[in-house]
Amino acid sequence: MHTIDKRRAIHPDIARLGAEHPDINVLDAEAVANRDRAEAEIDKERRAARGQSGRSAAGKAHHGHALAGILGPAFVAAVAYVDPGNVAANITSGARYGYLLVWVLVLANAMSVLIQYQSAKLGIVTGKSLPELLGERMRDAGRFMFFAQAEVIAIATDLAELIGGAIALNLLFDLPLFVGGCVIGAVSTVLLLFEGGKTHRLFEKMVIALLLVITFGFIAGLFIAPPDPAEVAGGLIPHFTTTDSVLMASSMLGATVMPHAIYLHSTLVNDHYAAGQAKPSTKRLLDGSKVDVVWALLLAGSVNLCLLILAANSLYGMQGTDSIEGAQHAIVSVLGPVIGTIFSIGLLASSLSSTSVGTYAGSEIMHGLLRIKAPMWACRVVTLVPGLIVLWFAPNPTEALVIGQVILSIGIPFAIIPLMRYTHDKALMGKWVDGPVKHALFIAVAVLIIALNVLLVVLTVLGKA
Q1: Residue 320: its pLDDT value, please?
Q2: Which residues contact 217 (CB under 8 A, 6 or more apart)?
């Protein structure tokens, strides 16, 4: 029997057409073919009904409004790219090597666009998230083992975000780190209560608002001390000066893609529409998702680039910038207390948004792999408690943040390899399957990211990173 639910519906009209094809099963290739034919028929009917109106001003306005309605999921996922861990890495890079590694961030951002679009594409075409597809294709033992590593990654993710937020509150209000962590946990839990159902769009808007605060907080210093455009442009030429700069570039590239962002984006594109809400066609969703991903990661990439440029321009050669606290104190000494406060506010927004998104991802991973839909507050507690324990006992929170980033690196292959396989699966993707050129590019990017993450882990264990 043909069933249409919130996650599997591509367009409401297909439910009508599905009644004419009772043999449809969305899990096999025949279902994919039937779905594609149904969508083609729907698009044909729409074009015939519109006639020439699509070229009119009203038609263009309608198209723009429809596109705006698709935007949002990538901006939520992009929060993972401006978390406190990235803040620390970019400032350290600029303070140590100046503009040398600007090209690394540009390359990293380009790879991120491909990875995140592939995740969105998988969710749009199949109507399911990556964790759900993994859960359907694994035996029970495999599902539980995969969930265990994914949950460890979620805890490590939350650890980094929690530490960043606690440091921000300490810088702003002189709160003890543990108390600051409790405040971050409480506020992010309230934010997560808006996720789901009809309030999901509100959750998206709040996260995007925090992303804008992050952007302002981290680029404000450039208005006080603008960089030399020629020096910035010089950093676009790929080159190194020392072995240490090679290691820093490897760390920056290797830590580019966050596992939870890959898992979550395939969920976000479907949760963007409330139950019963009409969806655009698959083609329009994919086209809109391209715009969504490019603009979202362009914003996140610009923020990271501005952080590196700020450090290169104002903090180059200064000691103590290898920690977030040290970097903030250096910013205050060079650019003044106002810019230092704005930076701390940006760091606080970074923590609140990224820890909320990380917990959201953990909830969806549990739902997809274990088929358990736990309350969001319960998922928050699972990831929050280990972080609070670290804040209470760890003598150096920055070291704990670095360890958390290394654990994230271990989880990258578990997310990126299944994504690469599924988007090249003809039976699963139908006519939207990746072609040989795109698949080859995806393989190259995946191999590079995985190799660099392995290198980062090895160097950290050996004490050389």
Answers
A1: 83
A2: 342, 343, 344, 345, 346, 347, 349, 350
Per-residue model confidence (pLDDT) at position 52: 45
Residue 162 · residue 386 · CB < 8 Å? no
3 state SS of 446: helix
3-state secondary structure (DSSP) of residue 136: helix
pLDDT reported for residue 67? 61
Asked whether 292 and 71 are in contact (CB, 8 A), the reply is: yes
Q: How far apart are CA 285 and CA 432, in angstroms?
A: 12
**What would the two tokens of residue 283 be?**
């083609």
The CATH homologous superfamily for domain 73-462 is Amino acid/polyamine transporter I (1.20.1740.10)
Cβ-based neighbours of 323, under 8 Å, separated by 6 or more? 88, 398
Q: Is the dihedral of CA 215, 382, 410, 264 positive or negative?
A: negative
Mean predicted confidence (pLDDT) in 286-307: 96
Domain segments of the chain as ranges: 1-51, 73-462
Distances (CA, A) of 68 to 46, 62, 125, 266, 330: 20, 10, 20, 19, 40
N-to-C CA span, the chain: 56
**Of 34-48, 264-278, 383-397, which gets the smallest average pLDDT?**
34-48
